[in-house]
Amino acid sequence: MSLLSVRDLTVKFAMRDNTVTALDNISFDLAKGERLGIVGESGAGKSITGFALMNLLNRPGFIDNGKILFEGEDIANMSDAQMRGIRGNRMAMIFQDPMVTLNPVLTIGQQMVETLMAHRKLSKAEAEQIAVVKLREVYIPSPEERLAQYPHELSGGMRQRIIIAMALLLDPELIIADEPTTALDVTIQADIMELLLELCQSNKVGLILITHDLGVVSQMTERTLVMYAGKIIEAGRTREIINDPQHPYTQGLINALPQQTKPGMRLKQIPGNMPSLTAIPAGCPFSPRCEYVRDHCRTTRPEPVQYAHVEVACHEVNRLHRDNSEEQSA
To answer: Which ranges carry the ABC transporter domain (predicted)?
Structure first.
């Protein structure tokens, strides 16, 4: 049985005049201990997916359809009281900005101890001991002293390490990390990602990594979902997607990486922008930006098909693959 099984998940937002679809019928599985990447530009639906999986959507957002099976339990329609036994305990989430996650008026120790005592029958002394162990696991120096400090007294990298320690406090089976290094300096980002990978591997914790950075995904994950306008448009083993992308959008994301451009040359970019939720095209949502577009792309939504070791939602994948093969052989 999968650790997590998402089936036909649809998330909508109730607007003043109509309802818009933020996630459109997405499905995927996550095995125990597996690391999955979810990538795409801003507005693709990545973070909404994470919030939906944690059942943290607030009005006007709501789950309109589908199932989220966590170890066989459908958590999509659970009450807040039911979710308290799962959220933080068996599933944890790391958010983009640690200063938003941490309470500025409570010490690190107070926040960690309260979390432990809310879910476990522990004394304060026992909870503090566990907190120190977790801080030591994320390589925080002098962890006993950190318990008495407030978030503003720590550096950005230190705060993010504490967030990771808090996510691991209750030994969850799944961590959802939403752009966990966005607020950090570039020099610290690699250290944090390496730490997160090490902890997930050593504790056999499942990981869903939400990011716009395919370079990070290639180093961190085993499988990848590429999202566009609320749809999964390519899915498969990360190595297959990075080395041989099938969807034009995925190809565009990879071509836009700095290492794909020669020094001194302009970075490549995908023309146009992600469509807004109120103006998603009728056919393939990527059709206005796609150089391979045909008339039927503008009118008919492509369904995912198995192609070259991945699932891809593209009408022109056969022609695209043939054209690329001819270019390489020329």
So the answer is: 6-254
Q: Give the domain ranges of the chain.
A: 1-90+171-268, 107-169
Beta-carbon count within 10 A of 296 CB: 13
pLDDT of residue 321: 66
DSSP 27: E
| Structure tokens belonging to residue 69 | 């099976």
Among residues 42, 48, 88, the alpha carbon closest in space to that of 64 is found at: 48
Backbone angles phi, psi at 306, to 5 degrees: -80, 125
pLDDT of residue 324: 58
- How many degrees, rounded to 5, is the angle at CA 228 between CA 246 and CA 31? 75
Q: What is the mean pLDDT of each run of 10 residues along the chain (330 residues)?
A: 93 92 96 96 94 92 96 91 88 84 94 92 94 93 95 91 91 93 78 88 93 90 97 96 94 86 80 92 94 94 91 88 54
Question: What CA–CA distance (Å, rounded) separates 98 from 27?
Answer: 30
> Can you name the residues that pair with 29 across neighbouring β-strands?
5
* Phi-psi label, residue 247: left if phi above 0, alpha if psi -120 to 50, beta otherwise: beta
| Number of Cα atoms under 13 Å in the Cβ half of residue 228 | 30
Question: Looking at domain 1-90+171-268, which CATH architecture does it have?
Answer: 3-Layer(aba) Sandwich (3.40)
45: left (phi over 0), alpha (psi -120 to 50) or beta: left
